Amino acid sequence: MASKEMVLHLVGQGRGYQEIGAELGIPAGQAYLVGTGLPADGGGTVTRAQRQRPGVLPSRSQALVNPREANPTSSSRVHDWMRERAHADGLGRPGR
Question: Could you tell me the pTM of the whole model?
């Protein structure tokens, strides 16, 4: 089980919470919670004293629990599939 001391030791070595979580076998947000005692999702108010705790990120800790979504605008695999379907349907061919 991950301990506060383990997490803060790894933070002290310059490691990020993603890397720490992977090494300890826990999610990055949980590593942040264990190390700092603060939820990474930004829930609740963080006091000035809490912001001074070792391991607390100055901002953007919410990304540890809510990684940015990837929404590609196009996919060559989908375009290939659509091309094959359109060709198979034959609706776009002259004389139909």
Answer: 0.65
